[in-house]
Amino acid sequence: MVITMKKQATKDQIDHVVKEAQACGLSAHLARDGERTVIGLIGEKAQLAARDWRSLPGVEDAQPAQHPFKLASRQYHPESTVIRVGDIEIGGGEPVIIAGPCAVESREQILEAAHQVKAAGAHMLRGGAFKPRSSPYSFQGLAEEGLKLLAEARRQTGLKIVSEVMDPINLPMVCEYVDVLQVGARNMQNFHLLKEIGKTNKPVLLKRGMSATIEEWLMSAEYILSAGNPNVILCERGIRTFEPYTRNTLDLNAVPVVKDLSHLPVIVDPSHGIGIAKYVPAMSLAALAAGADGLIIEVHPRPEEAVSDGKQSLNPAMFRELMSQIRPRSRMLYAARG
Amino acid sequence: MVITMKKQATKDQIDHVVKEAQACGLSAHLARDGERTVIGLIGEKAQLAARDWRSLPGVEDAQPAQHPFKLASRQYHPESTVIRVGDIEIGGGEPVIIAGPCAVESREQILEAAHQVKAAGAHMLRGGAFKPRSSPYSFQGLAEEGLKLLAEARRQTGLKIVSEVMDPINLPMVCEYVDVLQVGARNMQNFHLLKEIGKTNKPVLLKRGMSATIEEWLMSAEYILSAGNPNVILCERGIRTFEPYTRNTLDLNAVPVVKDLSHLPVIVDPSHGIGIAKYVPAMSLAALAAGADGLIIEVHPRPEEAVSDGKQSLNPAMFRELMSQIRPRSRMLYAARG
Amino acid sequence: MVITMKKQATKDQIDHVVKEAQACGLSAHLARDGERTVIGLIGEKAQLAARDWRSLPGVEDAQPAQHPFKLASRQYHPESTVIRVGDIEIGGGEPVIIAGPCAVESREQILEAAHQVKAAGAHMLRGGAFKPRSSPYSFQGLAEEGLKLLAEARRQTGLKIVSEVMDPINLPMVCEYVDVLQVGARNMQNFHLLKEIGKTNKPVLLKRGMSATIEEWLMSAEYILSAGNPNVILCERGIRTFEPYTRNTLDLNAVPVVKDLSHLPVIVDPSHGIGIAKYVPAMSLAALAAGADGLIIEVHPRPEEAVSDGKQSLNPAMFRELMSQIRPRSRMLYAARG
Amino acid sequence: MVITMKKQATKDQIDHVVKEAQACGLSAHLARDGERTVIGLIGEKAQLAARDWRSLPGVEDAQPAQHPFKLASRQYHPESTVIRVGDIEIGGGEPVIIAGPCAVESREQILEAAHQVKAAGAHMLRGGAFKPRSSPYSFQGLAEEGLKLLAEARRQTGLKIVSEVMDPINLPMVCEYVDVLQVGARNMQNFHLLKEIGKTNKPVLLKRGMSATIEEWLMSAEYILSAGNPNVILCERGIRTFEPYTRNTLDLNAVPVVKDLSHLPVIVDPSHGIGIAKYVPAMSLAALAAGADGLIIEVHPRPEEAVSDGKQSLNPAMFRELMSQIRPRSRMLYAARG
To answer: Is residue D197 located within the same domain as residue D281?
Structure first.
């Protein structure tokens, strides 16, 4: 149920609605829609129907929820969410660029990559310390050692750090080192992990599962939001289809759809989305034109030596060239969106 | 087999290679790669191996074919193909915009639509006279009457006409009225139709099948090219995936891939690709940013009254607004590509 | 609209309903549901609502159509359809086995194959004279020469002939030679072809398109039925998914679903459905257990020499072994269904 | 690398190969192929190439690995694995039937279900105590209370218990109560969970992920096997495709493929695989005919009251009827396989 208060509704009237809701066993969530307050109510059907919400003082309208996701929906939270990581704003109008290697491989590699992407204009550094690999015999990441190297790269460059957390046990440790948690596609429905992340306040980049529908993806965001963490950034990274030429099919349709259904910011990962380095720049520009709030791009100092995902990693020169195309464009694109 | 001649190769040397190829039972196709001539040979393995092509005078190099498609590949035809329809160039650097209703419904409707899209800056008019419908009980199009109305719209507006041909029997009639033939997704592997179109010289917009791989799509282009018609325009219109929210999944990955593998121009159909009118503008801009040579967009004077595809049709105001965003952007995007 | 007549309804009462329907501009189709007559009405909503059908004498009930397909649905035609090809009954309780090579390659090959599958117990011979190939450079079939060889194989073995027709132009010629027309997966929505086949009375094996939904498949059957040909046999042959190990994903779910939604018989093609010969027997048995009315299996005298589809063709010994497993099983399976 | 010892190889010769392998840093795994011993070696390419394994005494042959999965492959372990749960053998020739409700809802419900499926002939009881739900607002299971009720059902009926474990933290608790751990489709690539399960000795039913390839599924089995737990049972439960009529597309192709590539037993879940109760019996029979070692079927005392998955749950009468069809059939099917 979504209750829209009148423009001139008083704080007392708002508090009154919230108390009535709680008395019915509902949870109440406040958000803004321009000058109005919106109160989202979550609970069982019977509880929601227990009252004639429209008759409460200060209430303008009350509408049933349109979607199974509530806190993630624009109906419950009409204004776009801007997530702040230091002085970087994700969803604030300027595209945010996250770049770096698939995995932290060595001190030299990650520091070199960090300085290169910083110089080219990236805002954050990506790099996996825990790697979800299909084979138990493949490199699984440097674990805490990798996180320490990322922290060192931050000290040297000022870049904020994005890195994946794969299970609740390592969550406190990962939180200590990184600025943004990443939940990988394979863990999009690892509900225990989502709930634990929901108890922190860390920004989290939630990748779409390989065959997750848009609704399921937003329901996974809902797990984090409903556990108390409002800082969810969605990340489209390609879905699995029949097409064998590309690694995945980047579903840019999802960008305008999710920006319409939800208030959460959306980042696109063209590297996994197409899987071939030479095509990543075109898909980066397409993602921004579709309305993405930023990009996460794999860049490796020497892609041909990368332990993983070398085929889809840009080298530093390609990344610099791409950044030089993004900058003027983003200014115009974002101007147009107003 | 692809033979690259030396820059200074003479016409006689080129003719000599062609004659030798024909003597081996091969077909030979000439194309340009900057200042060099490229000769593509097509035939059986044994025939191709019958000669040491590198030893012929004027030959610089000879390489086996990298793909099952030959005439459609950049290897056989390194320079991008520009297809001319009157004074419109498809693939020439400036995005070409084709717009109009799903189906020709009446004289009034198609003329109104034609004037509206013309005023907004479209280059060509689309409109189906023969409609492939999943149900035998649905409107199947006005047939020749529809083609005549399209021709009248051309006379009134100067817009070139794109319309679908569904079977070889009606091909001569459709050719009489339209400037560009359209082959629909369901007919992408209607090989008899492709061969017959290959015998004409009409430009043809070849839509990708709903679950066709990129390779299969280029092989369908190969059917038309190898039958003698070089004027093939590829059209990405969304593929079928598990995602239920959108009508199809627009595969923009296909744009940079096909532009790399093939010399043929690529047009994107965001209307079918996402299937919901309010999201079409975002996907139009994304398609151009990905490198598309143009767009084909459904526009109806009154989408809510459309006999088919109303849900995905822009109204004239939305189309005007989109065109005002495309114009400056395309200038910059195309400048950048230079 | 489906009208169920009372058990004791007279012929006059039935004729009266039909005449009333025609007077409203509806087409009326008669079928049996045990001892009752069922009258299916097809037309526009307004026409259907023009009358209170329940008030006509002899009418027991009138229900709106549940599906967009009408003549193909069990609602319109409650009794299972049995299609007779000579003395073979498809849908009659005993599984029908169609076997033979992908393509007719030579007189020797098709006659050898025919004798082999006949000896093993097959009921019909398959073999393509017109082959839909993704490449214009691949073998396209022997055309009429192939059809003549199939006819000769029929004379020698008594086996009925199933062969593909790819376009309306060749339809009269193919009809002259074959007992069952095959419409391939790529042509499932070649509506012009479907309409033309609908004007004949030939049994037709309608393959499901590579990414066709069950509903679309039944709508294609509806094209043939509504044009006047009641002899449609559905053929599940695998759908396109992300799984690369098998050629297609045989969708056996479709068998019980279609047998429930429709009265038409269903044949399964495990050869295309899995694409690897050694796994075809397991999928053949699974298809029959799921409720299929028969199988169409690729068998080649020497699969390793086959011009096409050798990888998925059984050799004669494998086919004999499979037939020896099918025979007792089918007796039991069909007894159980009784 | 797979080393096949001679039939007459001595224990000393086998030990010698193992020691040499360990000296090269490889792990060595012994299995039987009829009368021969097979030694599977796992390690880096350089380590595997360090020795000429064929020259060691008692060695007949040494072959490189054919697949990225090793311990899960038939090459490394030629004999089919039979997993014992009490006196039940999974993979032993007789199909094993696991039945019960989606979730443990109450003491009354689970005990009633247990007695019903026991009476009909089931071998094990399924029931979720921890439920992975797309919505955080849906019933998440009774947790330990549910496990206790399952244990009580075992005491009353003698049925072995299968229940899902969703994260490593609850693993010790779940192990205490259940006989077979279940890993759900959403957790197939929760690698941390797989590794922890690999450290136990509990049999584990590993469901295929919704869009997991067969190779990825076997790689997930490899995670468990390589961590030390040999008791992996694979479970096909349907993949995600474009078809909207059924919940998933049951991929029975996977049954013969996996039985060929791997020595592990395969169970099929037709309830999730098709998602509609009335079609579950047909798909159960099809799964056994395809070669499955057993079935896991949702049965609820009153499906219409089920908290989850009621639409796909058989009622007790439907389950009894299905069991009466499976019994004679399985005898014959398994006899045939001999």
So the answer is: yes
Residue of D nearest to C337 (CA): D325
Pairwise CA distance, residues D109 & D104, whole Å: 7
Please check whether residue A287 lies inside any domain of the structure.
yes
Q: Tokens for D122?
A: 């089931």
Query: Looking at beta carbons, which residues of chain D come within 8 Å of B244?
Result: 244
Same domain for A93 and A14: no
Q: Which of D215, D276, D283 is the closest to C252 by Cβ?
A: D283
B241 and D244: CB-CB below 8 Å?
A: no
- Residue B256 domain-assigned (yes or no): yes
Distance from CA of A243 to the nearest CA of C (A): 8
Task: Work out how many CB contacts closer than 8 A connect C with D.
Answer: 124
- CATH number, residue C9: 3.30.70.1140
CA dist., res. B129 & res. B184, Å (int): 13
Question: What separation in angstroms does the CA of A87 have from each of A90, A96, A123, A151?
Answer: 10, 11, 10, 18
Q: How far is CA A205 from the centre of its chain?
A: 3
Q: Is C262 within 8 Å of chain B by CB?
A: no
Shared domain for A59 and A105, answered yes or no, is no
Is residue A178 very low, low, confident or very high in pLDDT (cuts 50, 70, 90)?
very high
Query: Is B249's CB within 8 Å of A255's CB?
Result: no
Q: Where are the beta strands (DSSP E) in chain B?
A: 2-5, 27-33, 36-42, 59-63, 83-85, 88-90, 96-100, 124-126, 160-164, 180-183, 204-207, 232-236, 266-268, 294-298
338 residues of chain B, pLDDT tens digit each: 999 999 999 999 999 999 999 999 999 999 999 999 999 999 998 899 888 999 999 999 999 999 999 999 999 999 999 999 999 999 999 999 999 999 999 999 999 999 999 999 999 999 999 999 999 999 999 999 999 999 999 999 999 999 999 999 999 999 999 999 999 999 999 999 999 999 999 999 999 999 999 999 999 999 999 999 999 999 999 999 999 999 999 999 999 999 999 999 999 999 999 999 999 999 999 999 999 999 999 999 999 999 998 999 999 999 999 999 998 765 555 454 44
Check CB contact under 8 Å for A255 and B282. yes
Cβ of residue D244 closer than 8 Å to a chain B Cβ: yes
Provide the domain limits for residue A33.
2-63
Do A241 and C242 count as a contact with CB atoms less than 8 A apart? yes
Q: Report the domain count for chain C.
A: 2
CATH number at residue B176: 3.20.20.70
Question: Inter-chain contact C227–B186, Cβ cutoff 8 Å?
Answer: no
